[in-house]
Amino acid sequence: MNRPMGPASPTRRDVVVSAAALAAVGAAAAAVPAVADTPPLQSKSLVGASLGPFDRGTVTELARKLAAKPYQAPPADLPASIANLTYDQYQSIYASPENNIFKDDNLPFRLQLFHRGFYYREKIDVAVVKDGQAYSIPYSSDLFKFGSNVPPLGDVGDLGFGGIRLLGKINDPNRFDEIAVFAGASYFRSLGKNQNYGLSARGLALNTAGPGQEEFPIFRAFWIEQPTATDDGIIVHALLDSVSVAGAYQFSIRPGDQTIMDVEVTLFPRVDLPRAGLAPFSSMFYFDGNGREGVDDFRPEVHDSNGLLMLSGAGETIWRPLSNPHNLQVSAFVDEGPRGFGPMQRNRDPRDYQDLIARYETRPSLWIEPVGDWGKGTVTLVEIPSDSEINDNIVAFWSPGTPMTGGSQYSFAYRLYWGDGPDPDGMTRVVDTRRGRAMLKGDSPNRRIVIDYQPAVPPVTTTASIDPKADVTASGGTVSEVDVMANPLINGWRLWFKLDPGNEKLIELRAVLKLDDSKPVETWLYRWTV
């Protein structure tokens, strides 16, 4: 069964470490005086009384004050009626189509709320911002529809919410479709036109794959700016909190062929953060032609992403195929001033997957483009063994070269492209990596590795006049029989070679294809393990 396409599901290890509901409401009350006589925004009174003035610095000040206090995790207890909802019961609670926020105002975006329950136990506070005022959204059962398998809720009081969902006219000018979901710790998802949800991004990664326990910050509150009738985007503010850090986030979201999010972040660490990850994402790679050993499945490939693309500060474009390893693997790609990185879903032909339900060919790629100079650091890639496609087993993020220190303030910005990823002009890129034994008979450890390259648009119509060369290097073992030939199936090139690992257990490989037409080619990096 494929992962649910509802809230940004915390499927990795099936656990999201919870944090608090908004004790910052108390902080907000202190920082933002209440105004009792301000009228609600809509005739149906889905939006409540004013919380007071709001501007782009409001959440930053809330985060600063929150970080100055010891972390306190309020209880995540739920009323008895929904404390033990099953997966099926929770999935049958959905937003009421009649009571979407912004619906009565005939605006280009709509806001829906997620009910609390199942994985989403923490109380999340939500507000709408209009004309410089923040208005609370009080919990009401009228905001939801409940399936017949959900027990009666009774009087649940100020229950709050489990997350938010944004809708816009991304696929059809006459229909509202989902464009973004924020639910589960600091996870969020988006997608491009005619795509389906796949990978997730996060606000911040803390101690991922490090010694000790990983920490999962949570978005404790959201403020959504009410758009005008002519806006092509919508702005979401979020307050992040965790044992080690508090932070203010602003997401400027513009849906389209590629949905673009401009993200501005200010962090206030409570303690030193030696292993913080900026702009993290989580994805799923189960198998493809690069590692089908032990796979018993009718589908040729199963993945949300099949490679990590990086554009270094020096201008080198690097492609690293993803893997589902036998043991946890962590790779660090050292860089200075990175220009971009992200997980790509390059195979867009349904025949590559043969899955009529999951439709992996429609999953978005995600390109992360730093704004400003991020200095020295590493793109850190974590590959986690998985025996199921429901687990997000791929994590990556930017690790700053200088750790963040407690009591300080850090600001950074980046842009997210949810869609098909970048397409540099003239770039010849890797479209497939395959491996298998190098001999037809016997149990030789020698491996045959095949890399397919495809030129950028416009496609090459003939390769006869191009004399390609290849440079393949390995950190161990022996590389031999390096050859490049034309690949008429993709109107490109195939580089292949034999690897004799000898007694090595892990080998780092690098391949550079050189074409005499001077067009740039992606550098291929690969980690082979026993």
Give a quick summary of the entry.
This protein has helices spanning 24-31, 58-67, 87-91; strands at residues 50-53, 93-95, 109-114, 125-130, 133-136, 144-146, 163-172, 175-183, 187-190, 200-202, 205-206, 218-225, 234-241, 245-254, 259-269, 276-283, 285-287, 302-303, 307-311, 317-321, 329-336, 340-344, 365-371, 376-383, 394-400, 410-419, 429-437, 447-454, 469-474, 478-487, 492-500, 506-514, 523-529. It has 530 residues and is mainly beta.
Helix content: under 10%
Strand fraction: 35-45%
- Report on the biggest sheet: 10 strands, antiparallel
**Helix and strand composition category:** mainly beta
Intertermini distance: 29 Å
Q: Work out the number of β strands.
A: 33
What name does the CATH topology of the largest domain carry?
Answer: Beta-galactosidase, Chain A, domain 5
Would you tell me the overall average pLDDT? 88
Shape, per Cα inertia axes: globular
Contiguous low-pLDDT stretches (5 residues minimum) are 1-6, 8-45
Rg of Cα set: 25 Å
Number of helices: 3
CATH domain class of the largest domain? Mainly Beta
So, CATH architecture of the largest domain?
A: Distorted Sandwich
The number of distinct structural domains comes to: 2
Tell me about this structure.
The structure is a single chain. The chain has three helices and 33 strands. It has 530 residues and is mainly beta. The protein folds into two domains: 12-419, Beta-galactosidase, Chain A, domain 5, CATH 2.70.98.10; 429-529, Immunoglobulin-like. Strands 3, 7, 8, 9, 10, 11, 16, 21, 24 and 25 form a ten-stranded antiparallel β-sheet that branches. It has a nine-stranded mixed β-sheet with strand order 1-5-4-12-13-14-15-26-23. Strand 12 (218-225) and strand 13 form a beta hairpin. Helix 1 (24-31) crosses helix 2. It is globular and about 75 Å long. Mean pLDDT is 88; it is low at 1-6 and 8-45.
